[in-house]
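FIELD: query
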Amino acid sequence: MTSRFHFTIRRPTSILKALVIAYVALLPYQFEVGNEVNFAPSDCLMLLAVLLGLYSLRYRNLVWTGWHFGIIALFAAGSLVAALRFGTLSRYELINKDAGLLLPFLSYAAITSAVTGWNDVRRILRVFVATVALQNIVAVGSYLAAYFFSVKNPFGRYGGLRLSGMLIDPNAYGGLLVAAFVVCEGVCVGPDPLFRKRTLWLFRATLAMGILFTFSRSAWIALSLALCVLFLLQTRAALRVLLAGLTAAPCLFLLLGNRFVPVFEELASRPKQVQGRFDLIDAAIEAFTHHPILGGGIGSFRIAQGEIAHNTAMWFLADFGILGLTVLLGFLGWFFIKAWNCYRSATAAQRPLALALLMAHTAMFGLAMGIEALYQRHWWLVLALIASSYRLTMRAPATRPAVAPLPAPAA
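FIELD: result
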């Protein structure tokens, strides 16, 4: 006698999905409220989403791995090492690093719980690109108004010469624009892009201009790496983007006039800052040699040098040692593998979405070479969507080969 057990999994409620969409829409906005303290409305909305949708959160085996819990354990160990070494844990590390890690993990849990189908992935990416692009249109317009008519630009830093949008830091804003740009281009590979012709070209042009006006070398490196992925997987699409950029760049420089050239040369080179970044890398390697296994403890590099490492890998190497760097690379590498598996296994209609996520993850990895990018909210959005897409791909029923009909019996 056999018995059947039916397990029903309650789908996430519409409230959680709506709050996740609103959270994504608020990602481009951040406000400076005090010394080293920034306020992001999206964080408040995420806390609200978790509270209201607590019963809808799901632990899904395919989206969580030991590397996730390794990151949490690593920060706990690093905090303990720092407390034992210095006698206390600084307020900056306690709030910004330890407590600040809670919000990315909450967003990851909420997004992976809210995504139940490929339509959810597409909808979230569409909202993300649209909100970033619309905010960037205003920022680029203000930048051009300040350049041509000396109007005050509230979206710039360094005398208004570097575009920072609402994220305060030009490098972080450049990474946000690159993520939106490569998502837009990745989905365009398929027959159903996120936006139609006029809107698509408007978003493309303004996002590219915003990336240029940030003068963020880290963002430019991130974009280059993502386009390399596009070139390897979709050569025609990459050549189309490259030709469009080569055609538009001279026109833009002609429009901005001769006085933009020295500004571009000065902000793009910044030799003193480049040398300073290499000095920080050398200091991180030296700190690693003193504490090679567990590192000097969280915040040890910032306290010793008076500033952050501006490189995610070097930060982990100095503060958490070789163990920390291994956990970081394992964590990020897991998403690379799953994004690639998802791209290969997805259907023709879903593959552009998988390609867009793979490109965005590659771009953010490149951005991490120039800033401490682990806490970038849009990176965790990409990570959550990669894991969700992989889960959807693995749960899809295997396509069976068509079976030829049997021949009719002879009369």
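FIELD: remark
The chain has one domain: 66-393.
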